[in-house]
Amino acid sequence: MGANVKKLRLGILASGGGTNLQSIIDRCQDGSLAADIAIIICNNPGAGALDRAKKSGIPHRCINHRDFSERQDFDRSVVSALQDADVELVVLAGFMRIISDVFLDAFPQRIINIHPALLPAFPGLHVQRKALEHGARFSGCTVHFVDSGVDTGRIILQAVVPVLDDDTEATLSARILEQEHKIYPRAIQLIAEGRLRIDGRRVLVEPATAPECQAIINPPLD
Ligand code: GRF
Question: Which of 82, 126, 207, 222 has CA 20 to 30 A from 50's CA?
Answer without folding.
Answer: 126
